[in-house]
Specification:
18 helices, Rossmann fold, 475 residues, six-stranded parallel beta sheet
Length: 475
Amino acid sequence: MKVLFVASEGDPFIKTGGLADVAYALPKYLKALGIDVRVVIPKYKNIKLSDKYSMSFKKSFTVPVGWRNQYSGVFESEVDGVQYYLIDNEYYFSRDTLYGHYDDGERFAFFDRAVLMMLKELDWKPDVIHCNDWHTGMVPVLYKIQYEKDDFYKNIKILYTIHNILFQGNYEPSILGELFGYSDDIYNDGSVELYGAVSFMKGGINYSDKISTVSNSYAEEIQTAEYGEGLDGLLQSRFKDLSGIVNGIDYDIYDPEKDTVIYKNYSKNNLEDKLINKKKLQEQLGLKVSEKIPMLGIVSRLTSQKGLDLIKHIGKELVNRDIQLVVLGTGDSEYQEYFKYLQEKYPDKVSSNIYFNDVLAHRIYAASDIFLMPSLFEPCGLGQLMALRYGAIPIVRETGGLKDTVKSYNQFTVEGNGFSFTYYNPYDLFHVIKEAIQYYEDKELWKSIMIQAMESDNSWDKSAKTYKELYESMF
C-alpha cells in the first residue's frame, strides 16, 4: 500500500505544535508496517537541516492559483527511511512565521493544488492521500471535483484527520473563483459554506472518504454543539465514516532509560534515579533542593485552552502549600506575566521559563512528581503521554484524549495512572491536586502509581496499526 501524508508542518524540518510530531512519527511507524508512506510539507524559510539528512532538488512545474501561474519546486529528503517532499515557493513560504498571514487562504490553496499536481509530475500514485487539518482541506475538494476525472488519479482514497476543529480555515466566498477557478455551486449547495464563509475544513470533511480525529472521546465531543464549532451537524451525518485514533509518542525519543538530555537515566525498576533528575533540576532552576517537596510541572502553550485560567485562579493558594511549580512555555501575555509574577514573589518555589526549550522540557518530565494539564478541551494531547512515560503523574480534566489516556487512581482497586476531574472549575482542580499530594506522602503507594503510569502503552505501534486498518477499510 502507498500513502501520501499531507501536512502543513513536520518534524524534524519545522515544528510549531503537535501536528509536526505526528507528521514525523506516524509515517515512520507506518513504514515499519510495510507501507510505502511519503510525507509532503511546504518548504518554509526556517526549515532545519542536519548532517543526518540532506535535501535535493527534484523538479519544478507551474501551479494555477485562480488567474495566477505560480512556480512550484519539489525538494526531496529522507528521514528514518521515510521520503519527504517539500513544496517550494518563496513568495508564499519564505516568511518568518508559518501561519497568521493575511493571505493564508491563498498560500494553502497553492499548496493543496501543488500537492496533487506533484504526484503526476513525479509519476508516483498513492492508494491513499492522508490530509491533516484545515491547511490541507481543499485537497479532497480539488481531487473530487477535478483530478479524479484524470486516468492517472482514479481510485485514490482520501482520509481527512481533524487535529483541532477550532481552526477551520474560513475565508471570503470570493476565493472559490479567485484562488480555485470554481463557480459558486459548491458554496451555494453547502458543501464548503460555513456561516457565510468558505471553510477549508468543511470541504475536507465533506469530500473525503473517511474522517478521523485524534482520540475516541474527541470524536464524540465534536459531534456536539459545545465542541463542534458549527460542524457538529455535518459530523453527526457522517458518524459512520468518523474514527477516533489516539496519537502516540515516539518511544525512541521519549525514553527515560536512553534519553541523552536528562541528568540520569532511570526506569520503573530504579525509580530512585528519577530523584537525581529532580535534585539536579532544582539546582539548575534555583529552587530549594529537596526530595520530599512535590514538584508540579507544566510544559504547555500558555493559553486559556490549556486550562491556565484555572491555575491562575488557585495559584497563590497552591504555592502557599509545600510544593514547587516549574513552568515552561509561551503564549498569551496575561499568563506569561502571571507566572513571572509568581516566580518573583516565590523565587524558591516557582520557576517560570517563558520560552520553549526541548532539553528543558525533557528534564521537567524526568524531574516532576506531578504534571498539570487541566485543559478546557484537548483533542489528544501529547504532554500527558510524555509525562506518563517519565513517571510524572498527570492531573488532567476529563476531556478528549486526556480522558482516553489518563485513568484516575482508584484507592479501592489500587489502579490508575493519574488523577482527573470532570467540571471545568478551579476548586475541583485544587481538590484533586490536594488529593494527589496526600497520596504522594505514601511513598510505596506513589511508587505503584508511577509504575502504572510508566507501563501505559502510548507508543505509535498500536495507533499505526489502527491507521493501517483504516486505510485498508476504504477499499
